[in-house]
Amino acid sequence: MKFNNIFEQINVELPAQWKIQTLRREIQSCPRKAAELQPQIDAARLTLICARRGYFYTA
């Protein structure tokens, strides 16, 4: 599905970026959780890549 306007795209991009940053900080504070949190980072990264190309990704 394509975005209709830039505001919809931004509403998807920003939360994905924030989620990636939050998860990375959590891994830095507790490296033992890295394997557990990596799939969430990958999903957020995929959402971000799709949004930047103009597509809405839902897993």
Describe this structure in words.
Helix 1 runs antiparallel to helix 2. The chain starts with 5 loop residues before the first helix and ends in a 7-residue tail after the last helix. With 59 residues, it is mostly helical. The protein is elongated, with a radius of gyration of 13 Å. It is built from two helices and no strands. The protein has helices at 6-29, 34-52. 73% of the residues lie in helices and 0% in strands.
Largest sheet: none
Q: What sequence of helices (H) and strands (E) makes up the elements?
A: HH
What would you report as the Rg, rounded to the nearest angstrom? 13 Å
Give the CA-based shape: elongated
Number of strands: 0
Number of helices: 2
| Average pLDDT for all residues | 92
Ends apart, CA distance between termini: 13 Å
Low-confidence stretches: none
The level of helicity is over 70%
Beta-strand content estimate: under 5%
Broad structural category: mainly alpha
Can you tag this structure with a few keywords?
single chain, mainly alpha, 73% helix, 59 residues
Summarize the SSE layout with pairings.
Blueprint: H1 6-29, H2 34-52
Helix pairs in contact: 1-2
State the gist of this model.
This protein is mainly α and about 60 residues long. The chain has helices at about 5-30, 35-50.
